[in-house]
């Protein structure tokens, strides 16, 4: 886990915030300050401002100032679903169900109905085959037409496309694993360099006194 900066509350940065930020600069060369204004809610914008330190000449002297940064909020699909459930945004009278839950419930009901209809057709065809029901040519033709509309899962073309998709998914997973490994190695190298620089600086400082 990397150290990016610190946070505080208020409207605008003060001299005290700049003093604290100057101390944070001893830990991180370019830290970020996040300022939250609890009383600054305006419309649909978050009352959060990011600042970075800049050096400017004020009255002939180099002075540290805090300049605002632009940022963008990014969320994955799983996070959006979680936020939707937390917000409990409902389009109907039942406030306990979210929009996502309603959508998934509708899909589940449709799939259950499809399964029940397929089972009914299959049971009817089996009963006609066993002689429990009299033959009904019109019904059998409709069942045959319905089965012909289904894709052939045993064809060579299906297997080729299926394995191609499996290989693509496995390749993307491997690339993600390699990227995470490279990131971990990069962080390890950065920490090693920081530690090596501190040890080297300590030896140089001791050389000045002895």
UniProtKB/TrEMBL annotation:
Function: Component of the COP9 signalosome complex (CSN), a complex involved in various cellular and developmental processes.
Record keywords, A-Z: Cytoplasm, Nucleus, Signalosome
UniProt domain EIF3F/CSN6-like C-terminal: residue ranges: 77-190
Organism for this UniProt entry: Pararge aegeria (speckled wood butterfly)
UniProt record, GO biological process: protein deneddylation
Statement: the UniProt record of this protein carries the keyword Cytoplasm: yes
Record protein name field: COP9 signalosome complex subunit 6
Domain of life: Eukaryota
Any single GO CC term annotated in Swiss-Prot or TrEMBL for this entry: COP9 signalosome
Gene3D superfamilies registered for this protein in UniProt: Cytidine Deaminase, domain 2 (3.40.140.10)
Places the protein is found: Cytoplasm; Nucleus
Statement: the UniProt record of this protein carries the keyword Ribosomal protein: no
InterPro entries with a match to the protein in the record: EIF3F/CSN6-like_C (IPR024969), MPN_CSN6 (IPR033859)
Protein family membership: Belongs to the peptidase M67A family. CSN6 subfamily.
């Amino acid at each position: 886990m990397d150290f990016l900066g610190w946070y505080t509350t208020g409207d605008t940065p003060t001299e005290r915030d700049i003093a604290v930020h100057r101390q944070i600069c001893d830990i991180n060369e370019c830290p970020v300050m996040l300022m939250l204004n609890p009383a600054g809610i305006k419309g649909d914008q978050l009352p959060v401002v990011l600042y970075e330190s800049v050096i400017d000449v004020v009255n002939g002297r180099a002075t540290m100032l805090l300049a605002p940064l632009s940022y963008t909020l990014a969320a994955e699909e799983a996070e959006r679903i979680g936020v939707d459930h937390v917000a409990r945004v409902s389009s109907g009278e039942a406030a306990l169900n979210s929009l996502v839950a309603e959508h998934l419930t509708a899909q589940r009901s449709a799939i259950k109905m499809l399964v029940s209809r397929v089972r009914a057709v299959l049971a009817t065809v089996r009963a006609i085959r066993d002689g429990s029901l009299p033959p009904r040519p019109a019904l059998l033709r409709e069942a045959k037409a319905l089965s012909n509309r289904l894709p052939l899962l045993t064809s060579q073309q299906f297997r080729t496309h299926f394995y191609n998709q499996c290989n693509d998914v496995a390749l993307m997973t491997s690339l993600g694993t390699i990227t995470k490994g490279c990131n971990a190695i990069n962080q390890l190298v950065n920490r090693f360099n920081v530690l090596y620089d501190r040890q080297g600086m300590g030896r140089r400082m001791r050389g000045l006194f002895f």
